[in-house]
Structures are given as structure tokens and as C-alpha cells.
Predict the structure.
Amino acid sequence: MSVILSDAWLITMNKRREILEEASVCVEKDRIAAVSTRRDLERRFPAAEIVDCTGHIVMPGMVNTHTHLFQTLLKGLGDDMVLKKWFTCMTGPSGVHLTAEDAHVAALHGCVESIRSGVTTLVDFMYVHTKPGMIQSIVEAFEQTGMRGFVCRGFISTGEQYGIPPELIERPGKALGDAREQIRRYNRPGAKVQIGIAPNMIWAVDEEGYRLTRQLADAEHALITTHVAETTFELETAAARYGQTDTEFLSEIGFLGPDVLAAHCVHCKPHDIRILLHHKTKVAHNPCSNMYLASGCPPIPEMLLAGIDVGLASDGPASSNNHSLFQAMKVAALIQKGFRQDATVLTAEKVLEMATIDGARAVGLEAEIGSIEPGKKADLAVLDFHNAFMTPIHHPVSAIVYSALGHEVSTVMIDGRFVMKDGVVTGVNEADVRRRAQTHADDLARRAGSERFKKRPWRSLAI
Ligand SMILES: [Zn+2]
């Protein structure tokens, strides 16, 4: 089956970063066959179905390099807390009570949200394994919605002394044995959904956990992701335990490498940035979450100048409250400009690169996704820019990064299949997914003792 998306304003993100007007894209099976004029493509692909995209922007589907899909059920319960408190008094207890069905429903909802906002690749970081079947339940949600990405088998191996619920703690050997099983089950060459490995963070994983992760990743060629230097608390615990920063420690034990996607890196110092660069380690930048949890403003311009690949991310919706990369793009640009008092320090163009081609590079898929070029996978987002937020429109990249709200996304294709067409999600019944997610969210809050956050008193000033 062939499809021509015709007469669009095309943001290619190819090497020359071409923006083409009245351009058309032909998709054959799962790949982009050609980019040209409608007339030329109709001649070359006479059997292709025409989808008229006049008045629309067509851009590469975005890559969300870091989320925790199960947290979709926790939106709004963790407002106004710093990370350690947020984790130990709300997110951790919710994890303890999470079932595999909760995780499945949360992941379905998170994938629908992502598709609705033009995301076609997700990196999920799942560190709750109190019940069997968590990874499978999330993989199935990817498959049902058509999402591409990585479901990373996370774990926590220590941290009770810092308030981590003991139910969440696993022996690294056991967690990584399970990770190996999942990798061997799902990681076929070219698989749309792959399993990665995700040791949680420096105060929740011991040295053995990091060392065994590296061994398994080397043996199975799996993606690693982990939280690095997210808050000052990470740096304090790393200093107390190892006398160095978490980045220095992870480098010294041979953990870092080009297959590591380090989430956050908010408090990386110049020396840490040099270490990340040396190992070609990638970074997932979560601007909304870093602001929400008051973690800090990461040195993204310094990392970009150094040559580190930085992808964009939402983080889990317990700390960003949705999966919108449109919000992440705008906040990413604005926080750097404001904090640095330098309007040139991060441009709309760079932010869009981070959300697309740089994100693809961060997960090692730059040869397959992240731009609209013949031969690449057909992962595309179509935006209807005829709405009061995006018009009047002068520059499409500025309009996408600063004006759009995300609801402009009308059609999304992943792997050559429409996962949303003219505003309708195709793989699942969206209303049903939302209904189920609300029921599971209410029930989980009750079991986890988080209802007090739902019924919090009004608080206008300091808490
Ligand atoms: Zn995270």
C-alpha cells in the first residue's frame, strides 16, 4: 500500500534542514519512498492513495527520550514537592500498589497522549516490578497503539535508608535476569518495540547493579538508560558514598558508553560534561519536570556546544503532568533564555532538532527515524495550523515551538501506518482508554493512600 501526503509545508529535518512549500511525501509500506511535488509523485506512484495535506505542516514524528508511563495514573498528586519527598511520599507508595493491569492502562493512555501530540517514539523507564508481567503489559500497550520505542526494564536495589519503600527493592541479579529474559523475548533485529535496561539512580542502585547492567548490555546489545545528576540530593549521596559525582563514579566503573542515555544531568559540572562527551553518552532533557520538581536548570547549551547528543523528553506525568513534547519544546527554550538572560542561547530550530533528529540519535535510531528522507521509516506528524494559536504564521518552526499547543496534530503515521487519522486514534478506542485510566487512577490513589493529595486544602501562599 502506498500513500502520498500531498501539498504540505514540509519540515524535513534532513541534513540541509530543508523546509519545502507545497511538497509531497510518498510512503510505501513502512518507509518513505520519495519527497517531491504531488504531480511528480502521482506519476511515479499511480496506485498511491492521496491524503490532501494542503494547509497542513508535515514534520517527522517526535522522539520522547524519557518517561515513566505508569505515572500517567499519578497526574497532579505530586504538586509542589521536591524530588525526594515527591518520590518517598507519593510516587514510591503508588508503585508499591501498582498492578500489571494498572501499568497496562496507564501505558495505553500515555501512548494515546503521545500520539495526539505528535510523538512516534517513546522511551519508557519502568522501575516498578512488585508484581509479575509489568514489562509485557507495557509492550502490549505499545503494540495496540502502534507506538515505536523502548520499554526499559528498570530496577531499584537499595535506598531504604532514604525512604524508598522496601517492596520496590530488588536484588540486581534477579532484576537483570528478568531483563535478560525480556530482551531475548522481544529484541529481534528491526523490532519496533525493544527492551532496554534501566538502573534507577545513584541513591537507589548499588555498584553491583551498575556493573551487572553494563555486562548485560554488552552481551545483549541493549540500550541502557539511567537518571544522572537530577538533583543536588544525587550529588550529595554520590559524594558521601563514593567521594565523587555520580557521573565520575559511573565513568570510573566502566558503566558509561555510547549506548547510555542519561536522563536529566541537571547538576553536571564542566568536568562531568567532558566525561559524558568522552564516552559519547547521550542525554535526555526533561525541562518541564526539572522545573516542576524544582530540580534546577540543566547546562544544556554547554552540552550542545561540547557536542553531546541531547534529546528532549517529558519525564513521567507525575512530574510533568502530561506527555506533550510541545510543552517541553517551549519550556526548554524559555528556561535557558530566562535563566541565562541570553535570548540567543537556545533557538527554536535547535529545540526542534532535539525533539526529532537529535532524539533519534540519542536512542541510536538516527539511520531509521528523526527526519523525512527517502529510505527512512515513515514516522510522521501532520499539523493543521489553521487555528487561532498558530496563525498568523510566518515561520513554521517558530510556530511549532512557541505558538502551537499540540492539539494541532491531526494525523500521525508510525511505521507507515496511520495511528491517528483526522483526529481519530485508530489502534484503540480512546474514550474507553480514558475512562479506564480514570477508574484505575482513582483506585490506585485510594490503595496507595494518595487521596489526601486529591483532597488537599486550597493553598494560595507557602505550604
Ligand atoms: Zn525519570
The longest strand covers residues 2-11. The chain has a mean pLDDT of 97.
